[in-house]
Amino acid sequence: MSDFILGNEKIRHHLRESIIKRSISHAYILAGDKGIGKSKIAREFAMELICEKNTGCGECPACRQFLADAYPDFFLYGCRRQRKYRNRQDSRKYSE
Asked: Of all helices (H) and strands (E), which one includes residue 77?
């Protein structure tokens, strides 16, 4: 995880270790006050997961696709500012 997660070393360590050990949970809920970086953490974590080097390099084809908001398997739920916003009702349509 990048160093932008200041003051959250425990969270950064947990997420990084889950990537290294390939022990990824099926879901993560990031909760907290507005403006603390929940979406940024979600994007950074997702990019490291899909990266061919598991580092979020920004250079491999998967990272470039992710940075262009063209990665088909990434959606932020509940974040209205993102272009790929989906709510729970949308996800139910896709699961049927």
From this structure: strand 76-77
Work out whether strand 85-86 and strand 76-77 pair parallel, antiparallel, or are unpaired.
Answer: parallel
- pTM for the structure as a whole: 0.68
Nearest residue to 42 (alpha-carbon basis) of 60, 30, 50: 30
The percent helix, strand, coil of the chain (3-state, each to 5) is 40, 5, 55
Burial of 47 (C-beta count, 10 Å sphere; 0-12/13-18/19+)? buried
Per-residue pLDDT of the chain (96 residues; tens, 9 = 90+): 565 566 667 777 888 888 888 888 888 887 888 877 788 888 888 898 889 988 888 899 999 999 998 888 887 776 555 455 454 455 555 555
